[in-house]
Amino acid sequence: MKSLAIEREFGSGGREIGRKVAKEAGIPYYDNALLHKVAMEQGISEDTLKEYDEKMTGSILYDIAALADVARSYKGRSVYELFYSVQKTIEQLRLQGPAVFMGRCSTEILRDAPRVLRVFVYASDPADRIQRTVQVEGVSESEAARMIEKKDRQRKNYFKFWTQKEWKDWNNYDLELNTSALSPDECAEILLHAIR
Question: Model's pTM, two decimal places?
């Protein structure tokens, strides 16, 4: 069985799909649990690591200030050392057996690893993303649209910062799934078949 590394647009249903695949395949799912594992291993406050996680915003001044704050917060550890810790954890967990890795540049970290399927989940219809975000997050449609724009910008900039690649470039992935055309259950079935 292969591992699965997923990048996804906010509101596309990627997290739901990843969890379904992990549950059906009986393999670990790493998202927030990955942050917890890194925090514990590195002796870092999990709250502080969450502040750092996927927060590049695209504003150069903000990013410089955020990076400086992060570096100070971690007792002299640089933001690069923290990313290396996340990278190392992902690589070590993959060696333990098949798993589902959600975001955090896992598709690039595991690019050359054997038996890993790298996937991008998106929704071609913006209304689908807004409705999914309204349902999952319990917010208004206007707030959902703002959340989608902000989260996608953060993910795009985080991915670009650490990989020097474009987040939505299909060349970065083995497979792309459109949840405006396929249900999360259908996407999960496709991925289960692909990793088995």
Answer: 0.84
